[in-house]
Amino acid sequence: MSRIGKLPVEVPGNVTVTLDKTNTLTVKGPKGELQKKFHDQIDIKVEGNQVIINRRDDQKFSRSLHGLTRALIANMVEGVSNGYTRKLEIVGIGYKAEMHGKKLVLNIGYSHPIIVSVPDSITLATPTANEITVSGIDKELVGLVAAKIRSYRKPEPYKGKGIKYAGEYIRRKAGKTAGK
After folding, report:
1. Strands, sheet with 16-19, edge to edge from the N-terminal-most edge strand
2. Of 52, 100, 131, 159, which residue has the fewest beta carbons closer than 10 angstroms?
3. CATH 3.90.930.12 fits domain 9-81
């Protein structure tokens, strides 16, 4: 039995969870609403303030879905109650980010600025010129947008210049040495 899958998901009082006949789970909370359809091999039951996940058989595919489904439901409940945030840092002389309306404008060493537009459910903020905060209720979408922004200029290993996650360690390499 899956160690994660057999744990019930605790639902806070300000969150409502509903399940329909097509195995579609809807989670509503103070931050918003998320909806996701799950595979038919997994049985989902909403009992009081808990969501219980069971699998129908012991096939390898069903076992692989068991813990995944539980984790996705827990992320949905967490997202609508508290939300998710990823912080990015920009390192480099002259590198900066700024908001123009709902679009993010990145000046990161290219000959042109990069303009990033994001889905409506994601909120971008630039507290300083070298910090970007990505927040929203969908954990997968927040991580995807943060990874997309980081991909425009990944940190390089010699000076560490680029866009990195807050707290990310960049392994440094030694540069060239003078030959004899």
Report:
1. 16-19, 24-28, 33-37
2. 100
3. yes
